[in-house]
Write a structure and sequence with these properties.
single chain, 314 residues, alpha+beta, Arc Repressor Mutant, subunit A, three-stranded antiparallel beta sheet, 13 helices, 11 strands, 44% helix, Initiator_Rep_WH1, DNA-directed DNA polymerase activity, WH_DNA-bd_sf
């Protein structure tokens, strides 16, 4: 059974809710959200109870652990908060969960009165690639990924109350900031850096005495990180002497199929030499995407024009 959608969409009130799920339970929830048909300004009276089917093999975990997760999932609670209206809703979204080992699936039920909370997008929503969310092995990574995806267009999430963040992440047990930093934020930061399409940094933004009370998060998309990598690499190149630059360029040129004339032209023209190294860096770091023939592309960038015919064929 394939994915219903490549990207999950969920209301921001779900993204920012307090959730009690374990990592495996959260993966089940991610598959449920993937199957929900979301929309805008939907009449809640039209909703009915819904059932979702998830292949057990998709969860890629020990079957006994999956069984335990199914047993616990139907009692897990999410807490929805509307601060403007001073309203709090405590919801048990999945009242029935069946583990059907012989059929190789899990069935999850959601009651009609809960469905609107997961469906209505008109007050803001979060979207993220399901494949990436499923790769994350820490519940804190999973939750931070969702939350930061909801903020990525802003590039930052500022002045975040530390105690409220602990509450949202179901991580109040880490009373000391140093423990929360080490066991929640640093783990999420490392895993997102390795597996996700966004990265983040954070630092304390407010303190009461020596006690950290608020944090600032800065979010980098994959593209922004790629641009930064290129800029850093070019800053390093600027510190080299001409001999070192030519040696580096010669090594890079060995991966292209340029003619001897084109090779010579690049190596003897400082402008072309710098442009070549920078464009190659953009290709390597993913700033330039979907380039099928990098030699032909580079020939165009360097202004060889019709000289592109001089490119050697493999």
């Amino acid at each position: 059974m394939g994915l219903s959608k490549i990207e999950n969409q969920q209301p921001n009130i779900i993204t920012m809710s307090r959730q009690e799920f374990s990592m495996i339970e959260k993966r089940i929830v991610l598959y449920v959200i993937n199957q929900i048909k979301t929309g805008f300004n939907i009449n809640p009276e039209l909703f009915q109870n819904q059932t979702f089917t998830i292949p057990i093999a998709n969860l890629k975990s020990n079957y006994n652990e999956i069984k335990k997760s199914c047993k616990k999932l139907n009692s897990r609670q999410i807490t929805l908060v509307n601060e403007e209206l001073d309203e709090v809703s405590y919801i048990t979204p999945f009242p029935r969960v069946d583990y059907l080992g012989k059929s190789g699936v899990i069935k999850v039920w959601m009651f009609a009165d809960v469905v609107p909370h997961f469906v209505e997008l008109s007050k803001g929503y979060t979207k993220y690639p399901l494949e990436i969310a499923l790769q994350l092995d820490s519940i804190y990574s999973q939750r931070m990924y969702e939350i930061l995806c909801s903020k990525k267009d802003l590039g930052a999430w500022l002045n975040v109350d530390l105690e409220k963040l602990k509450h949202i992440l179901n991580a109040e047990k880490y009373e000391r900031y140093s423990h929360f930093k080490q066991r929640v934020l640093d783990i999420a930061q490392k895993e997102l850096d390795e597996k996700a399409n966004i990265k983040f940094t954070y630092e304390p933004s407010r303190k009461e005495g020596k006690k950290v009370t608020h944090l600032d998060f800065h979010i980098l998309t994959e593209q922004e990180q790629a641009v930064m990598n290129v800029e850093s690499e070019m800053d390093s190149v600027a510190l080299l002497n001409i001999g070192q630059i030519m040696a580096q360029a010669s090594q890079i040129l060995s991966t292209y199929n340029f003619s001897a004339n084109q090779y010579k032209e690049i190596m003897t023209d400082n402008r072309l030499l710098t442009l070549f190294i920078e464009e190659d860096s953009k290709i390597v770091h993913g700033v330039r995407k979907n380039i099928k023939n990098k030699s032909a592309y580079m020939a165009t960038v360097l202004g060889f024009g019709n000289k592109k015919k001089d490119i050697k064929k493999k």
